[in-house]
Here is the input.
Amino acid sequence: MVRAPTFHIIVSSLRRLRRDRRAAALIEFALLLPVLLSLVMGVICYGQYIWLAHSVQSAANDAARAIVAGMTASERLTLAQAAVATDMASVPELKANQIALAVEEGGARATVKLRVDARALTLLSTGMVPLPEPIIERRAVVALSAL
Here is the structure.
């Protein structure tokens, strides 16, 4: 026949468990791990987003500088496309169908507009961290008055 533990045994067991610190570090780590992972993923995801936004702006700037050499609108568009393709080669995750380029001419100025869909990038599509708009749009303006 099994006897129910007495009150004294239960109290002494609880006191012993309260003094035992062996598992405290493991429990604290398990509680803080999700917060730590969220912070690390946030830093990595925002870093990739800012790097991509900077790369898109740099490509737009390079395309604007390249179109100065073009004599016609179609030649300027071809030069812009080549400059963007060269710059965006450093971002192998992006495919050509994710990059939209437009060259608008008005008066003595030309505007290069570059639009990149960043949803396909691996870290930006995880959804672990709320990020800014995944469509990155940048523009650069160049004077064509010397032509």
About this structure: Residues 24-66 form the longest helix (43 residues). The first strand starts at residue 99 and ends at 106. The CA atoms of residues 77 and 90 lie 21 Å apart. The chain has a mean pLDDT of 84.
